[in-house]
Amino acid sequence: MPRRNDLTTILIIGSGPIVIGQACEFDYSGAQACKALREEGYRVVLVNSNPATIMTDPGLADATYIEPLTVASVERIIARERPDALLPTVGGQTALNLAVDLHEAGVLERYGVELIGASVEAVRIAEDRQRFKDKMIEIGLQVPRSGTVHSVDEAMALIGQVGFPAIIRPSFTLGGAGGGIAYNLEEFKEIVERGLDASPVNQVLIEESVLGWKEFELEVMRDRMDNGVIICSIENIDPMGVHTGDSVTVAPAMTLTDREYQQLRDQALAVLRAVGVETGGSNVQFAISPTDGRIYVIEMNPRVSRSSALASKATGFPIAKIAAKLAIGYTLDELPNDITRETPASFEPTLDYVVVKIPRWTFEKFPQADQTLTTSMKSVGEVMAIGRTFPEAFQKAWRSLEQGRLGWGADGKDQINPERVRERLITPNPERYFYLRYALQSGMNVAQINALTHIDPWFLEQFEQIVNLEGRLRAFDLSNVPADLLRQAKRMGFGDAQLAYLLRAPRLRHAWDAELAVRARRKELGIFPTFHRVDTCAAEFPAFTPYLYSSYESEDEAEPSTRKKVIILGSGPNRIGQGIEFDYCCVHAVFGLRSIGYETIMVNCNPETVSTDYDTADRLYFEPLTLEDVLNIVDLEEPDGVLVQFGGQTPLKLARALEAAGVPIWGTAPDSIDLAEDRDRFGALLGRLDIPAPAHGSATSGEEALEVARTISYPVVVRPSYVLGGRAMAIVYDDETLERYMREAVDASPEHPVLIDRFLEDAFEMDVDCVADGSEVVIAGIMEQIELAGVHSGDSACVIPTYMVAPEHVAMMQTYTVQLARALGVVGLMNVQYAMKDGIVYVLEVNPRASRTIPFVAKATGTPWAQIAAQCAGGAQLRLDDQYLHVMVPGQTEPVISHKLDTGEHNQKYHVKEVVLPWARFPGVDTLLGPEMRSTGEAMGSGATFGEAFAKAQLGCGQDLPLSGKAFLSVNDRDKASLLPIARDLAAMGFELLATGGTAASLREHGLTVTSIYKVNEGRPNAVDYVKNNEIALIVNTPLGKASFFDEVAIRRAAITYGVPMLTTLSGAAAAVQAIRALADDVWTVHSLQERI
Amino acid sequence: MDAVLVLEDGRVFPGRSFGATGERIGEVVFHTGMTGYQEILTDPSYSGQLVTMTAPHIGNTGVNDFDPESFKPQVAGFIVRAYSEDYSSWRARGSLAQLLRDHQIVAIAEIDTRALTRHIRTAGAMRGILSTTGEAVATLLAKTRQAPSMEGLDLTRVVTCDESYGWSEGSAPFGPDYGTTLLPPLTRHVVAYDFGLKRTILRRLADHGCRVTVVPAQTPASEVLAMQPDGVFYSNGPGDPAAAAYAVETLRGLLGKVPVFGICLGHQLMGLALGGRTYKLPFGHHGANHPVRYLPTGRVEITSQNHGFAVDPDSLPAEVEITHINLNDQTVEGLRHPGLRCFSVQYHPEAGPGPHDATYLFRDFVSIMEGKG
Known about the structure:
The complex is a heterodimer of chains A (1093) and B (373).
Chain A: E1 9-13, H1 25-39, E2 43-47, E3 63-65, H2 71-81, E4 85-87, H3 92-104, H4 107-110, E5 114-115, H5 120-127, H6 129-138, E6 146-149, H7 152-162, E7 166-170, E8 180-182, H8 185-198, E9 204-208, E10 214-222, E11 228-236, E12 249-251, H9 258-275, E13 280-288, E14 295-301, H10 306-315, H11 319-327, E15 354-360, E16 381-387, H12 390-400, H13 421-426, H14 432-441, H15 446-453, H16 457-474, H17 483-491, H18 496-502, H19 513-524, E17 530-533, E18 547-551, E19 565-569, H20 580-595, E20 599-604, E21 619-622, H21 627-637, E22 641-643, H22 649-660, H23 670-677, H24 679-689, E23 696-699, H25 702-712, E24 716-720, E25 730-732, H26 735-745, E26 754-758, E27 764-773, E28 777-785, E29 798-800, H27 807-823, E30 827-837, E31 840-847, H28 854-861, H29 865-873, E32 877-880, E33 884-888, E34 897-900, E35 910-916, E36 937-943, H30 946-956, E37 966-970, H31 976-988, E38 992-995, H32 997-1005, E39 1010-1012, H33 1023-1028, E40 1034-1037, H34 1045-1057, E41 1062-1063, H35 1066-1080, H36 1089-1092
Parallel strand pairs in A: 1-2, 1-4, 2-3, 4-5, 18-21, 19-20, 19-22, 20-21, 37-38, 37-40, 38-39, 40-41
Antiparallel strand pairs in A: 6-9, 7-8, 7-9, 10-11, 10-13, 11-12, 12-15, 13-14, 15-16, 17-18, 23-26, 24-25, 24-26, 27-28, 27-30, 28-29, 29-35, 30-31, 32-33, 33-34, 35-36
Chain B: E1 2-7, E2 12-17, E3 23-31, H1 37-41, E4 49-53, E5 57-58, E6 77-79, E7 82-83, H2 96-102, E8 106-109, H3 113-123, E9 126-131, H4 137-146, H5 156-159, E10 165-167, E11 188-194, H6 199-207, E12 210-216, H7 221-226, E13 231-234, H8 245-254, E14 260-263, H9 265-273, E15 277-294, E16 299-312, E17 321-326, E18 332-337, E19 342-345, H10 360-369
């Protein structure tokens, strides 16, 4: 049966802000679902609070709501749009949970909305661990011994049956948050308490440990005719005990006989049938005993998941797209396989290559966090690499990670503590694979390492082969290395840069010379990469989709075209500071350049993204973003241009080397990008333009830094050059701290000096994004940050338009921005950060490239700025008339595209971006915001008033605001006067005020009724006790300095644990008060983007 | 040691030897399954073929005592991208290379199997020679071209058993009880013709309550009928079905007298016996992921396949019903003749290796024997 004709409008729920455990893979799946349903002629309504997504682009759905993912909000959308059906399976656990909530609240029934793709019952069985296990036992499958408890007492009663080590898994949490492994009673009790707390239903599963068992996942699809297929098997190299999101994984499974694999296949299909997944994709996880082959079913997700995104990229099978089509009535055999065209989707992809995924952690942002890898996911991104063999894929994946290493070692950068080798092998941690390498090099054998790590010996033997080859290479240098050995090294995945180190290639002028020497040598020896197609069928049928990876084989399948073409370099693995926003920009660069006639070629290695979908760009190279790999593609494709300004720092870092190699770089010249990072040159430019900036300097050593700091006077902001997300950025108040910073935090060098700026305390900060074509400059948006200076702009809420800046200052920023863009010869995007203090507008920073805020600005103004910028880079000119921005292509008199500009003449005038922070994942980490960015994602709220927009942004981030209750206030002396209006407003809205000594006294002086409570160090009951007793609904606490540091840490931690909203700046508090008023008045409404544009 | 594969059209693939030394000539085919190399190697249907595995890593799980489909490797030669001498599996008893050397199977690794597969896909299955002898390519090429083509080749006589034997073991359990033999209650008697019979088929028959008597390929129909079986099974096997005319004749003597179930070569022989024709496919079906539609229900099965010939649907008489078709290329995958109580499938419902989606066909066979089909 083809599509269902009884449905007209379908609602899709997205996954909200990026958090650990739920990242841009759901933008990929949501975007695919939107496209799939629209191409079937349905009217698609989409809701997602995350503006930095492709799925929320107005072109992807008929009505796009960037609104909070709450029952109240979605009910309003349903009431306006009256969808016939809701597809909840492509927006992660967030969408599934919300769908269940909507069902329970009676909303779906009230409006006659049918749930498609998953039933409430199936979601409940899959999510309720006890019911799931009962179901598995009922159908004859095995599961670890376990029980579900709702209290610590019940848990203590159960532990006797389960035994240690025991796994604790809270129900209904993301990525296993709040869970862990306990080895003793004390630890057990602690983790159970935390888990009960983390679970929204106060329920945890206590489970027999299968630590060290082999771990597998199967990606399964089923249609309503009960046709079931396995899309991909994934083997976790890290055995059971490490969350699959934190494991290095490989597809397909490498260490199963067919007998074992077919048992997993039979069981996976049985699980789907038993849980009741009637249509769509699911992920089933298994543990297999390495000694007797016993199989345990661990869990299943009745929806598209992170692993499905990986499986889609690994196989070329578009799981989310097909899942959407199955949900509306198709069966697998009615759908074509896009890649082969001739064959149907009812088949199982077969791979003649190997795929390796490696997680990317960001522990450097959270130095106090426990780095042990457990069942609770901690990584923020991942890379995938494809090779013809496992060693090749594994080494390419390490090379893709971009962590300051050239690959899996072989770069002279090992930091190994020989004393800790056993410990680092036994306890999983982000450094484990480097220790494993060291262990092999220092003579530990496979059996010994297997005993410590439980990693399957087959993988260890592959690692040993890599290490052995490295040893053989070291015996030569570049001039005498035998051709066959060099070829073997390339076939095993060694990078040219690693070979440059191993073969002691000479470094001449530039950092990249040595690597290029290896490249030249291997070309002389006739060693060239070959490109192969991901074809779903191991070459059994011709592939029509140019989805390519490199290897060193005997024939090339790339078949480059002779069209005019451009390569767009992607942003690599997600990390804090460089995430989905840059993938959004790259995807828009593709859209923009394709629409003006270019063939677009995407290079990226992040499997979670829309950019690596095979139908986003005309051609996709799933490759590491290193000089070597990019040059290989450039050599083959001979593009007219390469775009490096859209993918964040990853491609920018390659710009100069690519330029030096003669690659045509489009857009703003790499030299201008450098100029903006070079304090001296940039300072000179500002001087010439007469634009104020905080006093500044740069230093390449500790002494220099002290000298600069004394000249410009404390406090100062220090940071390394060429970083994103405020990596290692700090505000420093004295010599001692500065010395320590220079010693410990950074690795300063003449090539990478440390930048030192005068810190403008209490300043307001603004962000301006603009687009330029080399002469014409168009302001895209001006954002006012709600937090004061000192909080990284990526961690600060912000609002468009500015609401507290005088028009003359806005005009000044516009003028400066235009001057700067022209002076830097910007062709494309530029972001400028301004600070305002005492009526002066200072330029803090200029970045002539895509910025994190572009997607938000695009959504707020309804204009696809990144597309326009890419078109400028491709030679287009901008022409502005009062309502429209026209894009002109040379040789054509009519504009190729005209965008209507936002005039603000509608009832969605204010747009607020708020951020989410990963504190809940990292117990023990201080949660105070600072100049180092630590947020993982963002949500947007729009409204007629600032308060409404701010309220929605908070709700969009999952932060409920209280409408009544007790507000706890504790602020420093400087803030006491400004607190008064906030306190008055709170009191007027019916909040009861609690405050610590000084704050309480100051408020009472102004006639407010305040109850005094103790600070943590003053006595009991103190503020933390009140929080823990759920007596406090809202906290306003600005830092009081070193004396009360621990007090504040304790309050902040309690606030996070108990989900109490906490404001650490008064500007934030003032915004929250306006938001609470908007919610209390219940005047907020929902609007689609399409209504505005 | 260096080894080389030379195809009859002159294309040469150099690599490294990892099995026995020497020269082997055969038809080069590729198999796209990602697991099950031990089953594939030992499947007698691969007799006379140089089998290329498209999955890059082969040897990972070694070899074990349970998975072989016959008593020894049957392929003429084995071609892989990356051979793993080190293996890891709780059931493994030794390395793949050792098994190959023990049975004089020549094998080559480190060759570009994807390029080879693409070549066969476009140029068609062809003869090739696998050599470790260091002989000149021109000489090897000449030898290849002199070898007989698969078309017209009857290999069933080569691989069949010498004398009949009984079988009553079912599928072995997995997990902690691995290694024990299940003996299900056996209520039916099936005579299985061995044209290259796989053990998994015998186990599946036993699982479904059938005591099996395996007979050599040339056993006359009268002899089988004298055993008064409840049903006859026509097995898989190598070579060109049209060349095994004797087996078609035998089958004609059985049809209508006893229920008959055929798999793979058995299916092709069935097609011929019912009056149809067979033809050679360009490069055959060898894999574990082919979608097949079971027409009576419309459902799709993912199937294990291994055949180079197919039954021409237009050649079949009207009373023969096509029951299964391949969704990739619409070729015939199954047929039945209700009046004659016989049916057959082109693919491998017993799996080994491959998915278990079509196990129901063994139940159907039992139903027919019970007069319900």
